[in-house]
Amino acid sequence: MKNRLKYLLITLGSILLLLPLSLRAQTKDDFKREQFISENDTLNYRILFPDNFSENEKYPVVLVLHGAGERGDDNEAQLVHGSDLFLQAENRKKFPAIVIFPQAPKNDYWAKVEVKRDTMPFQFNFKNKEEPTKSLDLVMKMMDSVINQKFVDKEKVYVGGLSMGGMGTYELLYKKPEMFAAAFAICGGANPEIAQDYPKGFNIWIFHGEKDDIVPPALSKAMARSINHHGGNAKVSLYPDDNHNSWDSAFSEPYLLPWLFSKERERE
After folding, report:
1. What pairs with residue 37 in β-bridges?
2. Looking at domain 31-261, what is its CATH homologous superfamily?
3. CB 15, CB 6: distance < 8 Å
4. Alpha-carbon distances of 258 from 13, 240, 254, rounded to whole Å
5. Which one, out of 77, 184, 246, 247, has a CA that is 20 to 30 A from the CA of 209?
6. SS3 sequence of 103-172
7. How are beta strands 41-48 and 98-103 bridged, if at all?
8. Among candidates 194, 206, 263, which has minimal Cα distance to 230?
9. Do residues 128 and 109 lie in contact, with contact meaning Cβ atoms separated by under 8 Å?
10. Are 81 and 69 in contact (CB under 8 A)?
11. Which of 52-61, 170-179, 258-267 has the lowest average pLDDT?
12. How far apart, in whole angstroms, are the C-alpha atoms of residue 186 and residue 249?
């Protein structure tokens, strides 16, 4: 009996010793704090490298754009939504990739859009064809730098975002149509006219809550229609009971990452 108890205590102690290691592997601290500097401007971002990263191998890259509520200068709030999906041990094993979460400052926006907040839902006047915001311009320059690294698989670069980040995703696809293999946009919107400049056959998965009282679901539906009309491949998931937090449902989709990483950019 004493030997059995001793064995159980040793086993329990071993588990407790290993527990902190497993917990550390799942924390947001695995996203390294970085800054991209262009002239006098700085973009904060967090970056997650694959386990056993090697510069001699090639990896996909996923860029994720946060919503308006996560803006700031702490280089942390942008990880609130979506980062846990990429931190899951199973996903890190199945889909080894470089994942980047940049952060826009409080006074800026990813997309070029005028927002009227005195009505519900908000009203949006998209100006996607104009010069990008400072934050989106920095993201584009950062991504140009990233994909030129020898360890990046240029045929497997992806972008996605939620709310303001969904809007930024649509605009980024318009301004950098040659860069991305596929995208996802959650509760976003844009000027549907920009879809005519998306690559033919481009794959994007669009998500929105039908009860969204901040960003009208009609904006996502309009983008999907325009993308498909102009030869793209937009699939849409509408959640009948979701309000503006449809990112919770989107990031819980079991096929999101398998779908995303299955896409490759057509070689020139």
Report:
1. 42
2. Alpha/Beta hydrolase fold, catalytic domain (3.40.50.1820)
3. no
4. 37, 24, 8
5. 77
6. ECCCCCCCCCEEEECCCCCCEEEECCCCCCCHHHHHHHHHHHHHHCCCCEEEEEEEEEEECHHHHHHHHH
7. antiparallel
8. 194
9. no
10. no
11. 258-267
12. 10
Write a three-state SS string for the chain: CHHHHHHHHHHHHHHHHHHHHHHHCCCHHHCEEEEEEECCEEEEEEEECCCCCCCCCCEEEEEEECCHHHCCCCCCHHHCCCHHHHHCHHHHHHCCCEEEEEECCCCCCCCCEEEECCCCCCEEEECCCCCCCHHHHHHHHHHHHHHCCCCEEEEEEEEEEECHHHHHHHHHHHHCCCCCCEEEEECCCCCHHHHHHCCCCCEEEEEEECCCCCCCHHHHHHHHHHHHHCCCEEEEEEECCCCCCCHHHHCCCCCHHHHHHCCCCCCC
Confidence of residue 266 (pLDDT cuts 50, 70, 90): confident
So where are the chain's domains?
A: 1-30, 31-261
**What is the tens place of the pLDDT at every residue in 28-72?**
999 999 999 999 999 999 999 999 999 999 999 999 999 999 999
pLDDT, position 9: 43
